[in-house]
Amino acid sequence: MFMFRSRKDTLVKRAWKSRRVGLGDAHHQEQQQQQATQQLKGAALQLLRRLTEPQLELLVAALDSRGGDPGECVLVPRNPGEECVGGRPLPPHLLMVCVWRWPELHTHQHNTPLRRLPTCAARNDHVYVCANPYHWARLLQTESPPPPYSRFNLDLLRPEDAAPSEEVDCLAESQETGGTQQYATYSTHGTGSIPWCQVAYWEGRERVGRLFPVCTPSLNIMGDTPHGDGLSLASLAAHSHTSPSEQVKRTREKIGLGLVLYQEGDRVWVYNRAEVPLFINSPTLDGGLHSRSHFIVHKLPPGHILNIFDYDKARLYQKLPVPPDLLHEGPIDQNSVRVSFAKGWGPNYHRQVITECPCWLEILLVPAR
After folding, report:
1. Which of 133, 264, 334, 336 has the fewest CB atoms lying closer than 10 Å?
2. Which of 9-13, 55-59, 308-312, 315-319 has the lowest mean pLDDT?
């Protein structure tokens, strides 16, 4: 009878096979938990069967890529249908991320903020919502940074941490294609081909490659996995004049899909699509130099998103006088964000400064005006 299985049934089966194994908390598989898991399964299959064949094809392509190619939107009515878990209707996009990305979310679904990624085109649609699970990320709440995080004194920030300035334009060499790529998209805080930030890639104390100007609203920064357009760190490293250490090689192999850096309005965001955590330090996450004399390093788990820079806060900090007791400290760039792959730094780690991390980025933002 399998000869007569419809194309739609085949796609539903393929999609279901791509789900995250072990829905719910494996350590607490009590009867109530098992019932919730079965309800989640039933609701997910109902939603899949309501999709059209073209929608299922889009969904299966995104699921097969595991986030490497997030694909197009899968639009469904914003109001939940018959999909219920625990007697409550579940919004379609939340149901999808519970089943295909984060099974633990269905136990505290209404307390978990999700944020749409810039790849999603259904941002202002009040009738439909995108049910592609790779168009959503978990929002990291920075009010209570998850451990491990660290605070460190400003005097640990050494002068060699700062990248030298360079004059750059937006005609960047594309190592992936062997040619050049013109970035001519208008940025939020500039016109024409003016970059809104520049990215420097570091391996330990050595900066690898030139500063990379960013003029497009978003940029994929990847390890050596060519998923779409973006900046390949392996391509930059190929032009390094020194051989990387074993630690750098191991860390670079873990970067994989890397991160998405994007600007939206007066905020800059980072979405972690790697399989390892990112560690981030930003002046507007700390309160700047004016509120305390230490920084905070935030841990961003895979699949999470974080507002790493706020131009409104930066403009406010520029108007405030620097406390006299901080005038003697080393050079601090209030428009610089630092991101380390897989390795943290600070008092809670044996790496005290970011230049001791194997692979990291310095995001140099155009100052707020």
Report:
1. 264
2. 315-319
Phi, psi dihedrals of residue 260, rounded to the nearest 5°:
-115, 125
The reply to whether 71 and 202 lie within a common domain is no
What tens digit of pLDDT does each residue of 122-178 get?
888 888 999 999 999 999 977 544 434 444 444 343 333 333 333 333 333 232 222
The CATH number of the domain where 23 resides is what? Answer: 3.90.520.10
Q: In sequence order, what are the residues at sequence separation of 6 or more whose Cβ sits closer than 8 angstroms to the Cβ of residue 321?
A: 290
> Cα–Cα distances in Å, from 35 out to 27, 89, 131, 193, 327?
15, 16, 24, 55, 61
Provide the b/e sequence for 306-320 (b: ≥16 CB within 10 Å).
bbbbbbebbeebeee
Query: Domain range for residue 175?
Result: 150-365
Identify whether residues 134 and 165 lie together within a single domain. no
From 95, 109, 94, select the one nearest 42 (Cα to Cα): 95
Answer yes or no: is 158 within a domain: yes
In a domain, 144, yes or no: no
CA–CA dist 253, 240 (Å, integer): 17
Please say which residue of 138, 164, 191 terminates a domain: 138
Tens of pLDDT, residues 216-247: 999 999 998 665 678 999 888 887 778 889 99
Identify whether residues 122 and 175 lie together within a single domain.
no
Q: Do 202 and 331 reside in the same domain of the chain?
A: yes
d(CA 203, CA 247): 10
Taking all residues of the chain, what is their mean pLDDT, rounded to a whole number?
Answer: 77
Contact 275, 108 (CB under 8 A): no
Task: Considering only CA atoms, give the Rg of the chain.
Answer: 22
Q: Where are the beta strands (DSSP E) in 78-140?
A: 84-85, 88-89, 114-116, 128-130, 136-139
Question: What integer pLDDT is reported at residue 328 of this predicted model?
Answer: 40
Same domain, 206 and 259: yes
